[in-house]
């Protein structure tokens, strides 16, 4: 059940319960049966609310970039530690590349767990290690980018060291959600370093292939549920729409995004076919972004939406019921 549908269902159930309470003095025994049934149904749906495909994690481990980073970048170099970042949450800059929460926070809220402690600050917050650890660094990718911070491979190395030092057990791994966020920094670095449009398809393929290597590696460590982000419509971001006064998305860039997402869909479907248990899920940032933009009346020019592609097993968009800022 999608999160929006859950809320509609909850309002429906609430209405029924209010009606039962009003009529209770007239049909006490009969309505007691329905009241009990609806309470059970509400409890079931509340439980489903905090699950991904039936999996209820106890904590999160996060790898990736600024869409997921909650404070790993150094204060001396990252703008995320300066105003106006953090003005709506937590009220001051906190290292998040947002005025408030980021994807990690929203996903944690959806799942009913605490947002994991940033890796850089874990030694100062050992009491929060039970929430998991966020290894994501803003500006990074699956390969080295334009920022001198650890790429996703190195971030996973950090996690493996914690396992080797018995900070986390195999049971911790198996009961946790692993989030891999990739928002496009590899592509920005590719173009900045002289990459050509002719070489773009091959590079996109290499990025998705490396992302798959990372997913397989995390799975090999014992992870039972691994979420990976589909790429958002890069052609709709401000740096791409500024030339037309932010009125039209760049269709060429979004075509490249479609290619990335199509490859990712195919890769996740293959991985789930191999594991036989829908371990891998896709967080559909593309549709989340375009839905918000289209509601605002911004035409999103692209030849293909990710939902037009045959969805991979385990693909979900409901975790983006809280769309990122």
TrEMBL record:
Lineage: Eukaryota, Viridiplantae, Streptophyta, Embryophyta, Tracheophyta
Record InterPro entries: GDSL, SGNH_hydro_sf
Keywords: Hydrolase, Lipid degradation, Lipid metabolism, Signal
GO BP annotations listed: lipid catabolic process
Pfam families according to UniProt: Lipase_GDSL (PF00657)
Organism this protein belongs to: Nicotiana attenuata
Official protein name in the record: Gdsl esteraselipase
Record family assignment: Belongs to the 'GDSL' lipolytic enzyme family.
Gene Ontology MF terms in the entry: hydrolase activity, acting on ester bonds
Cleavable signal peptide: 1-24
């Amino acid at each position: 059940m999608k999160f929006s549908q859950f809320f509609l269902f909850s309002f429906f159930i609430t209405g029924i319960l209010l009606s039962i309470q009003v009529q209770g003095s007239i049909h006490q025994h009969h309505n007691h049966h329905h009241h009990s049934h609806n309470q059970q149904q509400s409890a079931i749906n509340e439980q489903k609310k905090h699950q991904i495909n039936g999996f209820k994690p106890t904590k999160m481990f996060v790898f990736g970039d600024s869409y997921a980073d909650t404070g790993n970048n150094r204060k001396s170099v990252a703008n995320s530690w300066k105003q106006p970042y953090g003005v709506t949450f937590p009220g001051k800059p906190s290292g998040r590349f947002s005025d408030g929460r980021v994807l990690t926070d929203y996903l944690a809220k959806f799942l009913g767990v605490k947002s994991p402690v940033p890796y850089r600050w874990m030694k100062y917050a050992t009491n929060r290690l039970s929430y998991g650890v966020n290894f994501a660094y803003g500006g990074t990718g699956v390969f080295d980018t334009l920022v001198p911070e650890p790429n996703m491979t190195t971030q996973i190395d950090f996690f493996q060291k914690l396992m080797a030092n018995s900070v986390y057990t195999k049971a911790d791994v198996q009961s946790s959600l692993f989030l891999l966020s990739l928002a496009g920094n590899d592509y920005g670095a590719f173009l900045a370093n002289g990459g050509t449009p002719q070489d773009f398809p091959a590079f996109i393929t290499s990025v998705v292939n490396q992302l798959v290597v990372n997913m397989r590696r995390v799975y090999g460590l014992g992870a039972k549920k691994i979420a990976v982000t589909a790429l958002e419509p890069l052609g709709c971001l401000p740096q791409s729409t500024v030339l037309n006064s932010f009125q039209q998305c760049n269709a060429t860039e979004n075509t490249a995004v479609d290619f990335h997402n199509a490859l990712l869909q195919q890769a996740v479907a293959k991985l789930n076919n191999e594991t036989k248990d829908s371990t891998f899920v896709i967080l559909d940032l593309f549709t989340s972004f375009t839905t918000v933009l289209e509601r605002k009346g911004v035409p999103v020019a692209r030849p293909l939406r990710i939902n037009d592609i045959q969805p991979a097993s385990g693909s979900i968009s409901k975790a983006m019921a809280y769309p990122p800022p």
